[in-house]
Amino acid sequence: MAKVVITNRIPAEGVALLEAEHDVTVWDEAECISRETCLELIAGADAVVTLLTEKVDDEFLDAAGDQLKVVANVAVGYNNIDVAACEKRGVVATNTPKVLTETTADTAFGLMLMATRRFGEGERVIRSRTPWQWGMFYMLGMGLQDKTIGIVGAGQIGIAMARRAKAFGMDVIYTDAREMEASAAAELGAKRVDMDELLATADVVSLHCPLIPAGQDGATHHLIDAAALARMKPTAYLVNSARGPIVDEAALVEALKKGEIAGAGLDVFEDEPTVHEGLLDLDNVVLLPHLGSATVETRTAMAELAARNALAVLRGEAPETPVTSI
Ligand code: GLV
Ligand code: GLV
């Protein structure tokens, strides 16, 4: 039996898979584990199941010890993991792609509708008991039909978002270092453009790329900065369901205040769970507390996939979805 540590509550189905074969410790509290407790808990673990709130770096790997074989992240994004540090020590790291694709695209689409149709703003009017009345010109938004969506990052979630947009009558353009899967591009009539053209053309810019730190190949940190926002149409909307630091939040606040863009829908923030004060004061931005993959079904599937990944490595087999090249 190997020692498996789960650094926070995950759906029981994932825990059960691990418990069937190994000695499992779960930090079973509603709030996130503190760094100190986490480093103590993982000492001597052969496998650690992590959430995106845990930073897996040299300090973490040292605290676990040399016997550690696998870090199974219960998230598709793995910017919390120092992949090179894992590889150097022969630790396999895994993530949970595919199982959350449709749910995360639903969230991005929801943000787009809420922002363009002013649904968040409308809800706030009623809840604040502000008097209102139906009116021909009351709270008009932007229709999506015949508008252009610009998908930044045409991976699985980007494609799933594009499918939804096409079903709502939108034209699809995208930017990515690689071509979109040919079958998806044909089905969507998606045109690949460079970032500048996408920013200048799209009525909605929706982010679906990973967060890659500044200085690394293909860096996406502050990809949407003041200059990028200035290139967007004043009538355009920004949707971020990927990772907060892809957007320069201070620059976004300025752009929204000055009317450089029409609005934004955000599920992620630069310094979660802190949200920029400037955003809280603006009516033309919709804010969600990182609900991208938050359905019962999807979180269960993510926990099960992470568990299968950890079990595979502990058995000496290849995991389904590694992010390390070992
Ligand atoms: C959630 O943000 C994830 O990366 O799965
Ligand atoms: C609006 O409520 C309409 O009936 O057009």
Written description of the protein model:
- The chain is an alpha/beta fold and 326 residues long.
- The chain folds into two domains: 3-97 and 296-314, NAD(P)-binding Rossmann-like Domain (Rossmann fold), CATH 3.40.50; 101-287, NAD(P)-binding Rossmann-like Domain (Rossmann fold, 3-Layer(aba) Sandwich).
- The protein is built from 13 helices and twelve strands.
- It has helices at residues 12-19, 35-41, 58-64, 83-89, 101-116, 119-127, 156-167, 182-188, 195-201, 226-231, 249-258, 277-280, 296-314, and strands at residues 3-6, 23-26, 47-50, 70-73, 92-94, 148-152, 171-175, 191-192, 204-207, 237-240, 263-266, 285-287.
- A seven-stranded parallel β-sheet has the order 8-7-6-9-10-11-12, sandwiched between helices. The chain has a five-stranded parallel β-sheet with strand order 2-1-3-4-5, with helices on both faces.
- Helix 12 (277-280) links the parallel strand 11 (263-266) and strand 12.
- Helix 5 crosses helix 7.
- It is globular, with a radius of gyration of 21 Å.
- One glyoxylic acid (GLV) binds next to loops.
CATH topology name of the largest domain, in short, is Rossmann fold
How would you classify the helix and strand content by structural class?
alpha/beta
Proportion of residues in extended strands: 5-15%
Unique bound compounds: glyoxylic acid
Structural domain tally: 2
| CATH architecture assignment name of the largest domain | 3-Layer(aba) Sandwich
Shape: globular
The top-level CATH class of the largest domain is Alpha Beta
What ranges have pLDDT less than 50 throughout 5 or more consecutive residues? none
Task: Give the beta-strand count.
Answer: 12
Rg calc: 21 Å
Helical proportion, percent range: 25-40%
SSE string: EHEHEHEHEHHEHEHEHEHEHEHEH
Task: Assign the CATH superfamily of the largest domain.
Answer: NAD(P)-binding Rossmann-like Domain
- Looking across the biggest beta sheet, what order are the strands in? 8-7-6-9-10-11-12
Number of helices: 13
Measured distance between first and last alpha carbons: 23 Å
Largest sheet data:
7 strands, parallel
- The overall pLDDT, averaged over residues, is 97
